[in-house]
Task: inverse folding
């Protein structure tokens, strides 16, 4: 048998109390968080609040961003977009669901960088930093070439090798900088400014090797763009590969597709025609290699599409099994739906059956009879009370009630009520009525 005293000592919480305590515990112990993820199930009802789910490959969490906060978001969230949010941990008490209360949202990863890049491009273009009219011509034979780049990267080795092979007479001066990561943009801008002020260079190359958008980002910073625009000597931007285009490329006097190409542009000389032919040969080789790669890829794709008949048969069999299961499920669902419709029809028929109508009529008649009986009884009771009240009133004004208080009624022989002594004379016979009984009297004398 359970111990009743122990049961009585238990602290029992309602579901509401439990959810409220957990919510307070979460909000009181979990600090403000930064969370990144992909938006899904985004909803924006008429209240102006936003509700969505943040997910990654393994988990998801519900989020709410209220109207007062989401007004400051610079973009319209949509499903599938990667975002970074600052949020508080909380609990929706109504359903007992863990959720994040988002206070700030920004785009994450590649999308955020591209948005920042486009905004800066538009602003600098409006200021005229990309205009062809402000670009300077490159010197034909630069005697001194400055290079702003990383001193340890492959790009600087490539540029030194090309310049040494094509134009050994030119002096080369390296301005070593950090080309990626925090502080890289400021180092690059400072090096450009110092090289310009030094007065030693005929040409300045600014660049680095290839990388991701994040790696190349210092060359998309405004500080680098303005340093290039303010540089007094001609500049060549050589950032990344041929397909990479940065803001530095747009501001510089000339853009080179690669650091090596920048060195080639800077080292044009008498053998330019021969070099041009060599470049064409290299381009043809690269095009042929690209074409071969493309053909190999097409061959691989075609080979991958050629499947063994047994595999195709297995796929068709599996699809047939899947369709059969879907058909059975649809039939069961249809049968269940027809059964529900039949049950509903039977219930409707039961309500319309004559026996049901008669039963309802009997019930209404019985209810009406009871109501009538109660009304008659109420009316009789009210009439009795009224009759009793009026009888009491009549009794209160009755002369007999006056007699009960010790008064008497005096009448002459004719039954006339004597109201004054003027109506009497000595020797007259009178009849006196009391509250109980009456007696006869003779007038001896009168007064008044």
Result:
């Amino acid at each position: 048998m359970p111990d009743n005293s122990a049961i009585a000592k238990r602290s029992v919480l309602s579901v509401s109390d439990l959810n409220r305590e957990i919510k307070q515990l979460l909000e009181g112990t979990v600090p403000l968080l930064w969370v990144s993820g992909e938006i899904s199930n985004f909803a924006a009802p008429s209240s102006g609040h936003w509700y969505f789910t943040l997910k990654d490959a393994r988990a998801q969490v519900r989020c709410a961003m209220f109207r007062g906060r989401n007004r400051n978001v610079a973009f319209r969230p949509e499903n599938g977009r990667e975002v970074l949010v600052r949020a508080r941990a909380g609990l929706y008490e109504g359903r007992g669901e863990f959720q994040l209360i988002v206070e700030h949202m920004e785009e994450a990863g590649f999308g955020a960088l591209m948005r920042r890049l486009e905004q800066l491009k538009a602003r600098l273009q409006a200021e005229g930093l990309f205009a062809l009219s402000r670009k300077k011509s490159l010197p034909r034979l630069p005697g001194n070439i400055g290079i702003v780049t990383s001193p340890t990267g492959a790009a600087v080795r490539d540029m030194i090798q090309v310049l040494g092979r094509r134009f050994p007479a030119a002096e080369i001066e390296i301005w070593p900088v950090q080309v990626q990561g925090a502080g890289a943009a400021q180092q690059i801008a400072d090096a450009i400014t110092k090289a310009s002020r030094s007065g030693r260079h005929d040409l300045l190359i600014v660049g680095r090797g290839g990388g991701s958008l994040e790696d190349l980002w210092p060359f998309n910073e405004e500080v680098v763009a303005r340093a290039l625009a303010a540089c007094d000597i001609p500049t060549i931007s050589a950032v990344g590969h041929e397909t990479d285009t940065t803001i530095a490329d747009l501001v510089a006097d000339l853009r080179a597709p690669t650091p090596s190409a920048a060195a080639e542009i800077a080292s044009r000389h008498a053998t330019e025609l021969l070099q041009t032919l060599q470049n064409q040969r290299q381009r043809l080789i690269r095009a042929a290699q690209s074409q071969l790669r493309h053909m190999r890829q097409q061959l691989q794709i075609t080979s991958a599409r050629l499947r063994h008949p047994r595999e195709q048969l297995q796929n068709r069999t599996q699809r047939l099994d899947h369709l059969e299961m879907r058909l059975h499920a649809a039939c069961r669902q249809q049968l269940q739906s027809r059964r529900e419709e039949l049950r509903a029809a039977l219930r409707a028929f039961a309500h319309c059956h004559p026996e049901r109508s008669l039963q309802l009529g009997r019930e209404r008649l019985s209810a009406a009879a009871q109501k009538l009986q109660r009304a008659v009884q109420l009316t009789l009771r009210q009439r009795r009370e009224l009759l009793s009240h009026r009888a009491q009133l009549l009794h209160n004004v009755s002369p007999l009630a006056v007699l009960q208080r010790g008064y008497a009624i005096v009448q002459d022989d004719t039954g006339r009520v004597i109201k004054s002594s003027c109506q009497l004379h000595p020797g007259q016979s009178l009849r006196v009525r009391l509250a109980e009984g009456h007696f006869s009297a003779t007038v001896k004398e009168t007064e008044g």
Notes: The mean pLDDT is 84. Residues 54 and 220 are 30 Å apart (CA to CA). The two ends are 104 Å apart (CA to CA). Residues 309-352 form the longest helix (44 residues).
